[in-house]
Amino acid sequence: MGTVGIIAEFNPLHNGHKKLINYAKKNGETVVCTLSGNFVQRGDTAIFPKQKRAEAALKAGVDIVCEMPVLWSMSTAGNFALCGVWQLYNLGCDKILFGSECGDIKLLTETADILLSDEFFSSVTEKMKTGITFAVAREEVATELGVNPEILSKPNNNLGVEYIIAARNLRLPIEFDTIKREGSGHDSPDYAPNYVSSSFVRDKIKEGNVGYGERFMPLETRSSINPDLVSDIGRIENAILGILRMKTQEDFKNLPDLSEGIENKLYFSVRVAKSLDELYDSVKSKRYTLARVRRLVLSAVLGFDKKFFMVPPPYIRILGFSKKGEEHIKDFASIVPVIARVSEIKDLGRDALEVFETECRATDLYSLSLKLPQECGLEYKYKFLKTE
């Protein structure tokens, strides 16, 4: 039956994710998940630490959980997809499964083919000269080339297309499948029976209404929420602003995903902003969406640069596995270093150390965003997860 992979944030894991995991288990012997670390793609802290989200994934039926390092988990859709696809392939997955609004893998694959064409790239370049964002230019050109406009306007469709593009660019012989997303849309604050967005559940938990939020989570993971381990970026707002104020103008110039001199606008906005919302509002523009600005801000705080942008990570770190997952790892020989103990990283070279050091900085900052702040050095104290 093969090995099925899932790229996820599980922020937090809800009934829609459980449906995806169940479908994967019906279609594969082993289910592997690459999970975002403590900072997520929207430029925010994850609602729970990665250990708690990895634990939830294992309880829900995943066999192996590996970590997507923060340099990729809090990045563009393309970089996020590149890392996830690369990791899953190198953990023996022959298929990647994801949810989408359209539920049509043929349509998503055809869209990826169009987006990889020379005609598409040249047309997008011309469109962006008018001052519109890459995302808008991409959608307009794709529509002109025959793509259904509903495809790229929906976030899960769009991310699925990025997965397919990443596999093509990496020349990886991996299959893709999708199931149709049900219930509320991505990031929707609206209620829906059974299937709501992660954003809906996060809001309820942050409001202190944990029991209500748990109604939309799998039975296996209910009653496991520790209110002391709920994160809110608002708790580290002043710390973020303080770190940014100590940056020089030169520090902003090597951030990943820069264009149009936005680093200068970011630097000068940091000098006057008295809150994160004020900073975001002053930097975002037609070309820079709010999510992109949030990522840039946190990238500057955590010391990201272009070195690891759109290249695969130097190792794969396993956060936990089931008995079946353990057997899979033993039987599968990866050409990429697969580690479970951070002590192994020191032997993997300078790039691996840089990636891990960045992870440590991220976790040390994240630890202050929890309701009950934690000490530094938690990456070295991570408790590996094993289930039957």
Q: Would you write up a description of this structure?
A:
The chain is an alpha/beta fold and 388 residues long. 45% of the residues lie in helices and 12% in strands. The chain folds into two domains: 3-101 and 154-231 and 310-387, Rossmann fold (3-Layer(aba) Sandwich), CATH 3.40.50; 233-308, no CATH class. It has 17 helices and ten strands. Strands 1, 2, 5, 6, 7, 8, 9 and 10 form an eight-stranded mixed sheet that branches. The chain has a two-stranded antiparallel ribbon with strand order 3-4. The longest helix is centred in the last third of the chain and has 17 residues, at 350-366.
Task: List its salient traits.
388 residues; alpha/beta; Rossmann fold; 2 domains; 8-stranded mixed sheet; two-stranded antiparallel sheet; 17 helices; 45% helix
In short:
The protein has 388 residues and is an alpha/beta fold. 45% of the residues lie in helices and 12% in strands. The chain folds into two domains: 255 residues, HUPs (Rossmann fold), CATH 3.40.50.620; 76 residues, no CATH class.
What does the secondary structure layout of this molecule look like, with pairings?
Layout: E1 3-8, H1 15-26, E2 30-36, E3 39-40, E4 44-45, H2 50-59, E5 64-68, H3 70-73, H4 77-89, E6 95-100, H5 105-115, H6 118-128, H7 134-144, H8 149-153, H9 155-170, E7 175-180, H10 198-206, H11 210-214, H12 237-245, H13 262-272, H14 276-283, H15 290-302, E8 316-322, H16 323-331, E9 338-339, H17 350-366, E10 385-387
Parallel strand pairs: 1-2, 1-6, 2-5, 6-7, 8-9, 8-10
Antiparallel strand pairs: 3-4, 5-8
Helix pairs in contact: 4-9, 5-9, 6-7
